[in-house]
């Protein structure tokens, strides 16, 4: 896959390498005082536009969820296919959403655009990277599916067929009749009621593969004593690291992992339905956000192949420690098992429609 897509679409000249200039203090000061993002984003804009064209969220072949953060409203925005199919003002151009969800503060420019509802009223968005609100977006996807399941249950139980979330349908059927995920949810609800007389567990019928981008998690670097000696700038930039940002991002990502594990293990007794693949062993260039040299990209691919051979680990919800699931069971094996489950599900759906 990387030979046909990822590598041909990057250009190192647009993402300058890390500088090892001796004047570290001057470089750090200039970085802190610089106004505007590090990159203008023009190359990324053109590349995304070339790839997705005028495709809108409702036109995606799969159901997608793309978080962003609205700096004007001070709240996260969850762009997704399911709602875009029902509500016109949520059916944004995919290129706009991609640029918004990738607009990492200090690196790329924020993205603003407007959409219109079925009545012609404009809806303005002023957005930055969704990682600000959801650095690990696993719970975002799970909550959206749960919300959709609740909406469908309400519809199927209501003679008036009123949706749980009111809004303009934008000319698209409010029930998402052509969406396979919605159709599967409806069948699941009907089957559960007919066979058991009770509502089926939402999480028992969800498979989640959560793949992290890797971090350089430098444990034992900081102590309370060290923190007490920092001034304002030290919290933001300290010996080449960003302590405050690291604390926030690591904490939110790990907390989501623990929450997801709890939901699958405690509420649904199906902890095998959740697979988290992540590493905290990236070093130096490999952990850089914008080190887009061909050499570094190849190194990341090698690291990814190695990660496939690593054992599957799962967080212990009592201790927070990641432990091997079982000896010899690798991430590659787990992915194949998930693929097998999905193939089986697809065949069952096809058989049901024959």
TrEMBL record:
Coiled coil: none annotated. SUPFAM superfamilies: FabD/lysophospholipase-like. A motif (DGA/G) lies at residues 129-131. Pfam families: Patatin. Keywords: Hydrolase, Lipid degradation, Lipid metabolism, Plant defense. Its EC number is 3.1.1.-. The nitrogen atoms of the two glycine residues in the GGXR motif define the oxyanion hole, and stabilize the oxyanion that forms during the nucleophilic attack by the catalytic serine during substrate cleavage. Lipolytic acyl hydrolase (LAH). Gene3D superfamilies: Cytosolic phospholipase A2 catalytic domain (3.40.1090.10). Residues 1-142 form the PNPLA domain. GO terms for biological process: defense response; lipid catabolic process. It comes from Dichanthelium oligosanthes. This is Patatin. It comes from the Eukaryota. The keyword Lipid metabolism applies. It is an enzyme of class 3 (hydrolase). GO terms for molecular function: monoacylglycerol lipase activity; phospholipase activity. Belongs to the patatin family.
